[in-house]
Design goal:
By secondary structure, the protein is an alpha/beta fold. Helix content is 36%, strand content 20%. It has three domains: 223 residues, polyphosphate kinase like, CATH 3.30.1840; 182 residues, Endonuclease, Chain A, CATH 3.30.870; 178 residues, 2-Layer Sandwich (Endonuclease, Chain A), CATH 3.30.870. Helix 2 packs antiparallel against helix 3.
Length: 690
């Protein structure tokens, strides 16, 4: 790794909070449909939960190491945690204001989220019946006022913390906890309403209304319920020793995750003080920890699934379309014999990937399929196609990354299902995640073995492909497929790093990703110094690697025209008085999640273009198997350049990433047309002729 002193950088975790603020901006945007505004509130909430489970938990652990953390952090962990707390509290205030404004807008459409105190007589009868038939048997109240240790509260659940009292006996007070069963019942229940109106009640408010049914018989007649939520440290403690059974280690880690230390308590700010103090004590928290007061409602992630049927106006989205070169019926492998094809999700249909694997499964001359899987859809069609291939006599190898965070349990289940069908399942490497998105199909043609494959920037997940922006290169180019084969050989023999070093075309982590792109920057700097054509466009999810940021600064200082499009974390400063050119940096947050990685270097007119599974972060470069492929086809290069140009001209959903990351929108002049890049890209690809 480059050992030079790194210039100033932005704090990674603060930059991530800036990204989540951009998500909150979408919820705040009155031009966004109400259904989508609620969805963005849900995304914001879900993002923040994961941030606390992973990043805040990590900072808490790092506080134990004192000065040793200077190597990894831009500031003291305690100082970063203090900044996080301040930012999160301010964002929480914005969140509550936005939600209240959305409620006002919902009422204009005669949609109301009501609580247990606002029910009509008919609605009360409905709620009573619903509780008796569906809810009662799904809850188990815990009486906690006299216990020494709080029963384990699940990380992703919400709880109704109840204060039970008696008007007849002032000494008769009790505390109870009820887990709201959102895993088995819907969070939102549509109530019988007046004509033209839509009333919705939350599951926890149904329980609140029915608290007398649970506790009156014990002498209580006054009931108060407050929602709380605990966030726990989600880091898996996995033994990376090659001799340790990885499966057992992950299973043990999953069990321990459920017992992870509480790192945040979110609660209804109107909660009775003695009850809150009691819960804080039982959770072994204190006032210095992340105690976040909020409104009545928590676990807003459920609002991503807010019932759409209550809206009169349905959102009409542009539907994904099949790439014109892959319209069925045809043989995709025959197409790839003639040319490369680049799929752009979610504009192009993911069905083409399913069609490719289905074709390989039944083609009598296909001998084997090798594929990496990081995150899969719940009822994965990818898995179905691979199982079908085995049943048709093909040799199928699946590399399942069992340490894909929060997908570990699902991937363990897929492992068992695949092995039962005879698939050869690889489960990752010691100390290293397999994050590359690769496939290799081997077909007998005459007396030779012909190889086909793909390199993708995103997961092989047909569900997320509907709203994640990604690119997937389908090819039979020997330069690329030969290297894909070498990566699979390395996964078979992970102690032999020379197998990665033998790759002649693909750039591979952990072997040479950083060094390769450091050289690309140096080449651009040389061209700029010689007054030749230079420049780069970097589209990434996250930019945090010290050495690459340092080299980006050097390029800007040398006069290289540097532009970056970063969805999330951006630790790079974008202006400095000493630089010849400031760095133009934007972030686009819109209907689709910008997940693709494209790296473009002008190289004196040669236009070097790459797509990658890797962000520019230490973990992706040093501790994961990642694959970056050059794009050779001139037409596909032009296609990607045009997509980048559209995104750089975005003036509706683009925010400026400056040194302060305040998320100011890109300004447009009165004469400028409105450019919403995701719409423009769809129209460009839809109208493209091949």
């Amino acid at each position: 790794m480059n050992k030079k002193v790194v210039h100033s950088k932005l704090i990674r975790d603060i930059s991530w909070l800036s990204f989540n603020a951009r998500v909150l901006q979408e919820a705040n945007d009155s031009s966004v449909p109400l259904r989508e505004r609620l969805r963005f509130l849900g995304i914001f909430s879900n993002n923040l939960d994961e941030f606390f489970r992973v990043r805040v938990a990590t900072l808490n652990r790092m506080m134990k190491f004192g000065k040793a953390t200077k190597r990894f952090l831009e500031d003291k962990p305690s100082d970063i945690l203090h900044k996080i707390q301040s930012i999160v509290m301010n964002q929480q205030k914005d969140f509550e204001r936005i939600y209240n404004e959305i409620q006002v807008e919902l009422k204009k459409e005669k949609i109301a989220i009501i609580n247990e105190k606002q029910l009509t007589k008919i609605q009360k009868e409905f709620v009573d019946s619903y509780f008796n038939e569906k809810v009662r048997t799904n809850i188990a109240p815990l009486m906690i006022e006299s216990i020494r240790e709080l029963p384990l509260l699940q990380d992703k659940s919400i709880y109704l913390a109840c204060l039970l009292t008696s008007s007849q006996n002032s000494f008769m007070n009790s505390y109870s906890l009820i887990e709201v069963p959102t895993q088995t019942l819907p969070r939102f229940v549509i109530l019988p309403s007046n004509k033209g109106e839509k009333n919705i009640i939350l599951l926890e408010d149904i329980i609140r209304h029915c608290l007398p049914k649970l506790f009156t018989q014990f002498g209580f007649d006054t009931f108060e319920g407050y929602i709380i939520k605990v966030t726990r440290d989600a880091e898996l403690d996995i033994d990376n020793d090659i001799n340790t059974d990885l499966i057992m280690s992950i299973e043990k880690g999953l069990k321990n995750r459920k017992k992870g230390k509480a790192v945040r308590l979110v609660y209804d700010k109107s909660i009775q003080k003695n009850l809150l103090d009691y819960l804080v004590k039982l959770l072994s928290l204190n006032r210095k920890d992340h105690l976040v007061p909020g409104g009545r409602i928590h676990n807003f992630k459920d609002f991503m699934d807010f019932p759409t049927e209550v809206f009169e106006k349905r959102i009409t989205r542009n539907k994904p379309f099949v790439h014109p070169l892959l319209t069925q019926p045809l043989r995709i492998l025959d197409v790839l014999n003639k040319r490369d094809v680049m799929l752009h999700f979610p504009y192009h249909s993911f069905d083409s990937i399913i069609d490719l694997l289905r074709e390989a499964a039944i083609d009598p001359f296909v001998e084997s399929i090798k594929i990496t899987c990081y995150r899969l859809a719940k009822g994965s069609k990818i898995i179905n196609a691979l199982i079908n291939a085995v049943r048709n006599g093909k040799k199928v190898t699946v590399v399942l990354e069992l340490r894909a965070r929060f997908d570990e349990e699902a991937n363990l289940k897929w492992k068992r299902a695949l092995e039962e069908e005879g698939v050869d399942v690889k489960v990752g490497l010691p100390g290293m995640k397999v994050h590359a998105k690769l496939c290799l199909i081997s077909k007998r043609v005459a007396k030779t073995l012909k190889h086909y494959g793909f390199v993708s920037t995103g997961n092989l997940n047909e569900s997320t492909a509907m709203f994640y922006g990604d690119h997937c290169l389908l090819t039979s180019d020997k330069r690329i497929v030969s290297d894909i084969a070498r990566i699979f050989n390395f996964i078979d023999r992970p102690t032999d790093l020379k197998l990665l070093g033998a790759c002649k075309t693909l750039i591979v982590s952990p072997f040479n990703t950083r060094s390769f792109f450091l050289e690309k920057f140096k080449t651009e700097i040389k061209h700029a110094s010689a007054k030749k054509l230079s420049g780069c466009i970097l589209k990434l999810n996250s930019l945090a690697d010290d050495a690459l940021i340092d080299q980006l600064y050097m390029a800007a200082n040398a006069g290289v025209d540097c532009k970056i499009i970063i969805r999330g974390i951006c630790c790079a400063l974008t202006s400095n008085k000493k630089w010849s050119h400031p760095i133009k940096a934007i972030s686009i947050v819109d209907e689709f999640l910008e997940h693709a990685r494209i790296l473009y270097f002008k190289n004196n007119g040669k236009d070097d273009m790459y797509i990658s599974s890797a962000d520019w972060m230490i973990r992706n470069i040093d501790y994961r198997v990642e694959a970056t492929t050059p794009v050779f086809n001139p037409e596909i290069k032009t296609e990607l350049k045009h997509i980048l140009d559209i995104q750089l001209s975005e003036n509706e959903k683009a925010r400026i990433l400056d040194n302060h990351q305040l998320n100011h929108y890109v300004e447009k002049s009165v004469a400028q047309p409105s450019i919403r890049s995701q719409v423009e890209i769809y129209n460009y690809l839809k109208g493209k002729k091949y």
